[in-house]
Amino acid sequence: MRKLLFISFISFISLFLSASINNFAQSRRISPKIATPATPATDAMNDLTAEQMFVEANTYSKKKFAEFETKKIPFSESLLKRTVLEQKQLAAKYAAIVSTRQNLAAEDFYYLGMLNWLADNSEKAAESFQKFIVTENPAVEKLQTARSIVIVVAARQKKLDEAEKLLVDYLKTEPIKLTERARVESELAKSYRAEKDLAKAASHAEEAYRAFKIVFQDSTSRARGLDDLLDSGMTAFEIYRDGGKRQEAENTLEDLRKTAASVGSSSLYYKAVDENIKYLISTGRKPLALQMYSNALAQATKDFTAKPLQEDVLRRLKEREKHYKLLGETAPELAAIDRWFPGQPQTLASLRGKVVMLDFWATWCGPCIEAFPSLIEWHQTFKKDGFEILGVTKYHGEAEGFSVDNAAEIEFLQRFRKNQRLPYDFVVAKDNTNQLLYGARAIPTTVLIDRKGLIRYIETGSSQSREEEIRIEIEKLLAEK
């Protein structure tokens, strides 16, 4: 199993770090002053051309992981992070050397840009690429890549007029690489969305989604291709949703579902259907949403001939049935409560006028604990606006690895709350009645209840993206008066 993961990782690292517009810098700017991996002696480095430096830096991680595999060094997240950081540091060091040279040739500016891009120094990368773009008769393929990266940087900096002008130049020059076009269109869509210009955002989002669907057919990484499809499709949907364009929003999700079926992805298929059902509920069309749920159970068996894919979609959807039925309804009162601390017991009805978050959790749940910093932040940030968090758990009959009675477990929970510095109330139930009431079959499960007492959000799981999603929902519900 570890061998399979290792091999797939090498494939991923090769893709992620290759020299193309597919590789957008996502982390912090790297300084060349940070200790770098072993590099040639200074004289030898000075003998390298800018192109040779880029090739060496660009292939660093791929070569290192091939070396690790030969030496049977096991893969780990820390090894990945360290090696990628070393690669960025090497690129930054080479970029610093090249930038001090006099009388750089046209292609030196290109490779200096690529070194800075690899080092996540996007502003310096854009500066070098802009110098390359205006050189006499630049190599056209490099010219297009340089333009595409400058567009991305400009879009992120909200220099949208500059980005649009460069996009016009890019589109009237061959070759036009769909991978590059998909990325620049995606960045422009997100930037226009952030600027609340939904009309322009939608136009670019549609182009990005169209391009990613074509690119997927030739993608050497299925996982990455699926991620791009999901991201671009959901971005287009969200832009139409936020702009009140219901039909366009639903059409995008339906197209995403059909695309998922054609490429054989049960996870993408489920996501498209799930989002469509939730969207119908959120726009006051719950009967239609529940009908869509029933239809999807039958449609999935037609769309997928492979039994495992059918079963995966059906399992996921059936696990959500309880949530679909609860969304938009009055939140059921918590039941079988034995202890409520440190505050006084309350009913959900008494909390009307506030936005309430129910966090279904347990002390032994790692993802639950990982989410605590976000919950603490939300409590501190939003409590003054009428936000309330309730940590909902039940007796498990154990504490710190030992079997305990209820009284000892309560003492443990009180210590746990104090040690974790959790500022909100704990609700401890006698049994799993509340988990059944709210369909919290796995933990953590988050439920958001609006000021009117209606359930507006139910999701299971914890991750950075999920926490960002929850925060956005909290802010949206608090804005409703």
Tell me what you see in this structure.
- Helix content is 63%, strand content 8%.
- It is α/β, with parallel strands linked by helices.
- The chain has helices at 2-16, 42-47, 50-58, 60-70, 77-99, 106-118, 122-133, 140-156, 160-171, 178-194, 198-218, 222-242, 246-263, 266-282, 286-303, 307-326, 366-370, 372-382, 406-419, 433-437, 464-479; strands at 337-341, 355-360, 387-394, 398-399, 402-403, 425-429, 445-449, 455-460.
- It has a six-stranded mixed beta sheet with strand order 1-6-3-2-7-8. The chain has a two-stranded antiparallel ribbon with strand order 4-5.
- Among the domains are: 245-327, no CATH class; 337-479, Glutaredoxin (3-Layer(aba) Sandwich).
- The model is unreliable at 1-28 (pLDDT under 50).
Task: Specify the structural class.
Answer: alpha/beta
CATH class category label of the domain at 337-479:
Alpha Beta
- Principal-axis shape: globular
CATH topology of the domain at 337-479: Glutaredoxin
**CATH architecture type of the domain at 337-479:** 3-Layer(aba) Sandwich
**How much of the residues is beta strand, in percent?**
5-15%
